[in-house]
Amino acid sequence: MSGTLAGWLQVLALVAALALSYRPLGDYIAHVLTAPRHLRAERLVHRLAGVDGDADQRWSAYLRGVLAFSAVSVLFLYGFLRLQNHLLLSLGRPPMPPAQSFNTAASFVTNTNWQSYSGEAALGHLVQMAGLAVQNFVSAAVGIAVVAALIRGFTRKETDRVGNFWVDLTRIVLRVLLPLAFVFAIVLAAGGVIQNFHGAESIPAVAGGHQSVTGGPVASQEVIKELGTNGGGFYNANSAHPFENPNAFTNWLEIYLLLVISAALPRTFGRMAGDHRQGYAIVAVMALIWAASVAVVTVTELHSVSSQAGHAAGGMTEGKERRFGIWASALFAASTTLTSTGAVDSAHDSYAPFGGGMTIFNMMLGEIAPGGTGSGLYGILILAVVAVFVAGLMVGRTPEYLGKKLRGREMKFASLYILTTPAVVLVGAGLAMALPGERAGMLNPGPHGFSEVLYAFTSAANNNGSAFAGLGVDTVWYNTALGLVMLFGRFLPMVFVLALAGSLAGQAPVPVTAGTLPTHRPQFVGLLTAVVLIVVGLTYFPALSLGPLAEGLQ
Amino acid sequence: MSSPSRPVSGGLLDPKQLIASLPDAARKLDPRGMVRNPVMFVVEVGALLTTALACRSPGVFAWVITVWLWLTVLFATLSEAVAEGRGKAQAETLRRTKTATVARRLVDWRPGATDAAEEEVPAAELRLGDHVLVEAGQLIPGDGDVVEGVASVDESAITGESAPVIRESGGDRSAVTGGTKVLSDRIVVKITSKPGETFIDRMIALVEGAARQKTPNEIALNILLASLTIVFLLAVVTLQPFAIYARAEQSIVVLVALVVALIPTTIGALLSAIGIAGMDRLVQRNVLALSGRAVEAAGDVNTLLLDKTGTVTFGNRQAAEFLPVGGTAVEELADAAQLSSLSDETPEGRSVVVLAKETSGLRARDEGELGEARFVPFTAQTRMSGVDIGGRQVRKGAASAVAGWVAGHGGRSGADVQAVVDRISQEGGTPLVVAERADGAAARVLGVIHLKDVVKHGMRERFDELRRMGIRTIMITGDNPLTARAIAEEAGVDDFLAEAAPEDKMALIRREQAGGKLVAMTGDGTNDAPALAQADVGVAMNTGTSAAKEAGNMVDLDSDPTKLIEIVEIGKQLLITRGALTTFSIANDVAKYFAIIPAMFTVVYPGLEKLNVMRLHSPTSAIASAIIFNALIIVALIPLALRGVRYRPSSAAVLLGRNIGVYGLGGLVLPFLGIKLIDLVVQFIPGLR
Predict the structure, then answer these.
(1) Is B601 in contact with A389 (Cβ distance < 8 A)?
(2) P-type ATPase A domain location, by residue (chain B) (predicted)?
């Protein structure tokens, strides 16, 4: 089978699999978020945590829940990392240094999973399992909980209640993430991903000599790494490591897993809003952007060949696993940067300038196509609010989305949301470039070096977590700066999303008439796509012109 | 009423107006006022900065940019000044009527009292509840209600309508407006407004734009524009460290130019002019909106409540058809009907004569032509009228009365007549039976005249348009449901409320609003006041009572209830203009990037020259061209901002498609052409290379 045919088959199979799971998974999540009864296990959790599972919260209380839970998580994880040498299964690893511990704790709680450490060398099994993997579950659930509150803002009327954070969190973990993770962990293990408690073992290497290889509970962590759009690898090589991602099948499955929940959430949105067409419109925008991005990365990697060896191999092969090849690597790269996952099966640093630039641009889009679990949907809904606002004015009415009017208050929160991430990215990268010492962290000169810094801040602020590599980030400055960038990039937008949810929930819906802007037609899909591309394009064009564009247009 | 698809538009922009508004525009450059418009404030700060830099290290480029930045700000204030200028002249005329009116205040006036003491005070000193005497030839000193007497009043100062109107105590025509002139008789007026808050005061404030507050949509849009401005500011400020790293440090002048090119200056500059012009368009149609909020709400209206009489129909019954029976020719019936109506001066009678002329070409005959005609007037007892010419008798009247007359003169009114009569009644019309008796012969029925409430021409098309816009029309009438249904069907309204009492109207509004709908209505009577206050858009007729005018949020000086439809269109047009120019403004940025970014960085990264798709002459000419385009487009769009984007009633999807096509794609393409053209000129400026 030729590489091209195999590539097409992988892409088509992926699209088909996602299309198949769209309705059942989306409907199921909607059911979980709206079912009136708690499971017995959930009641137990509520009782242990001391929360009232039947209370309905104001947006501010919901937000306090999110922030308190996340703050406790950061502190807990920080302590865990600092004290890991005293715990079981530490494999004799020393405690992580303070700045790096802060960075890692922030990283996993914010669903970023940026890693300035090398997993197999720095961490024991217990921290991986009870610290990081737990955050992989709950940080993903927090994202879905927040978008659930936003959807309720659209669907509820004249109330100040947007749901119960603790109930949403518990249900998403227990009823959605755990069962899915359990099933697919077994599939991954069956596909060859390891699952054991081995420490470092010395193995004779193929080329002679001995190699030290660390085992571990990888499959169980790998599955939620993808499913929860987390991306933090058990190993430093992440999904390029043969223990995490042994073959073409597991590679394909991992791409599917990292897309599946975010791609199905528009269905949840459509179902809860009582109009599936709204969900289809949103998922269509996501699919369009995703398809275009995959195409750009694949085509540039196939065609921009910089070396003789590349010609022989039929494309840019530096930094890519021979097991996967160019098509699968490009598909993985585009999907992981569009979903805030940040798992990698190839080195984005080694991509052709436009291919690498595209992965940066993907993240700059704000992780919305389909984006992180929950965060992708709320991100695109906020952009939809902006699109509806401008378009709504153009049809001569106070703009309204799903029957809710977009007035000063709503636009304030939507504007702040749109403003936050670019501000965090640009200020962070600007500071890093203005400080001579930090600039020296770059391993490459010229525009490529700048791309490395831009990538790091874009990845952190958008909670992606993948790295361009080529930038020495394990310094106190970078650990602290990127840690803060991740926290700002995660929680400030959540504040605005929940405030918007509260503001929307309080409104009485406006009836739909012929004068209402329809938000389910191809026209709106095109409009929203254009708004996404233009707003992001305009914001980052100057920065991109000095990085990937300058490098690519030579 | 106006023709169905009359486009809503304002006057054209006169270049003289631009020049005349320059002093005002210059005054508005004051940063203290400018800070209310964040986008233009940033431009002004940028202009100050480049001015300082250009003074310190002068150069052609720095000065070109500086001058055009100032022009950008000036064009923005100019657009506002021009928009306001249009109301100024009107305000002047109004103000003249206000000054120097002397009021004749009656001390301790009581109803019926003729001996109340009189004192002369300036109009400005009148208080609520004072009574003033106004006689023929005098100006009414303040707003109020007539409490005694009846007078004809010239209201042309306010309405522009020269025909005098009658104002009398009691009833719905008691309200008088300060500044209008009593032409005959004497009236006593009870003052109902505080000094400084009279109708004229409000009107002056309104047309001058002084009372203008930002409307909810304008606030929301401003927030979006401000946040875009902040994003672009950040993008440019942080660009400097990136540029320094790339060894392409940029001068402050270039960075300021980039910021100004990117922030949405086009809409930022024109936003307030659009709002003022929207109010002005209403004023030009003789509608006073007492708040901008009401104008915007008009664009959002879901339900229009229209009074049948005066809005949907002409308000009186007119002959619509001659229906002959028993083999009578239609001409014969028309002739008889006309004869019997010649002396009937009621609108119904006139309409019979008109219809006879239209359908059968019968000229109206003078009474003198008929020889010895004896006209039989209508009385409540006979319920008939008619004429006797020689031995020929013609009668027309209610079916039963005429049938009785025919029977009494040896004739018989057949079942065919009754069938026609019943059909007309069922359709909500009024049948008038016409009978004739020739000399000595038996009387016979010639046929029936169908009188009906005639729906105004073009209303059906109007309502179809409204339906396409997503607006439901409900006709309100005191008629019985049968008649109401017939008229509703003929006019094409969506629904009707028959036998409506004021409470029913109120209940209907509440019901619609409970479903989240916005309701607009017109009204004039005191009993309309609660409903006018409850409606989201309440348009009071100027002929109405002051209670109605107080309760509504708009006043129509022409007292034309059909105006409501135009008001809705103006409200929509206002929002569309804002949205279209916002889209245009943002779409413009793409071309500006392609001009400025290669100009900034081609020196260090020659590959970026490929982005210079416009093939601009040099980096400096490219940046200057982008800034000049940015300024000129504001001036070019002032007429559009004042006139409003063309609005044709249609569904939201169609409207959006068209506006995205024109202002989105247009905004994307136009600046490429514009910047290129400007570059072709500015490259010859010496010193700009």
Answers:
(1) no
(2) 115-208
In a domain, residue A112? The reply is yes
Residue B468 touches partner A, C-beta closer than 8 Å: yes
Compute the 3-state secondary structure of chain A and give helix, strand, coil in percent, each to the nearest 5: 65, 5, 30
Q: Is residue A1 part of a domain?
A: no
Taking only residues 157 to 196 of chain B, the set having a beta carbon closer than 8 angstroms to any beta carbon of chain A reads: none
Residue A14 inside a domain? The answer is no
How many beta-carbon pairs under 8 angstroms link A with B? 211
In chain B, what percentage of residues exceed pLDDT 70? Answer: 93
Give the residue, A446 or A275, on which the prediction is more confident: A275
Rounded distance, CA B375 to CA B389, Å? Answer: 9
Pick from A105-114, B16-25, B171-180: least confident: B171-180
Segment B59-83 shows an average pLDDT of 93
Per the model's pLDDT, the better-predicted residue between B563 and A56 turns out to be: A56
Count the Cβ atoms, other than its own, within 10 Å of residue B644: 25
Mean pLDDT of B572-578: 92
pLDDT at A381: 97
Catalytic residue ranges of B: 307
Q: Which of residues 432-451 of A touch B (CB under 8 A)?
A: 433-434, 439, 446-447, 449-450
How many domains, in total, are found in chain A?
1
B252 touching A (Cβ < 8 Å): no
Whether chain A has a CB inside 8 Å of the CB on B110: the answer is no
Contacts of A418 in chain B (CB under 8 A): 227, 231
For residue A426, what are the domain limits? 25-202+213-553
Single pTM value for the model: 0.87
Which of chain A's residues have a Cβ under 8 Å away from the Cβ of B586? 390, 534, 538
DSSP string, A229-282: T----SSTTGGGSTTT--SHHHHHHHHHHHHHHHHHHHHHHHHHTT-HHHHHHH
Provide the 10 A C-beta neighbour count for residue B330: 15
State mean pLDDT over A49-63: 94
- Asked whether the beta carbons of residue B236 and residue A542 sit closer than 8 angstroms, the reply is yes
pLDDT digits (tens, 9 = 90+) for B289-344: 877 788 888 888 999 888 887 777 776 778 888 999 888 888 888 888 888 888 77
Contact (Cβ atoms closer than 8 angstroms) between residue A161 and residue A148: no
CA-to-CA distance for B501 and B485, rounded, in angstroms? 17
Pairing type for strands B102-107 and B117-122 reads antiparallel
Shortest distance between the Cα of A407 and any Cα of chain B, in A, equals 5
Q: How confident is the model at residue B160 (pLDDT cuts 50, 70, 90)?
A: low
- Tell me the CA distances in angstroms from A43 to A57, A251, B159, one per residue in order: 18, 38, 72
A399 within domain boundaries: yes
Q: Name residues 448-487 of chain A within 8 A of B (Cβ).
A: 449-450
Asked if the ipTM is above 0.90, the reply is yes
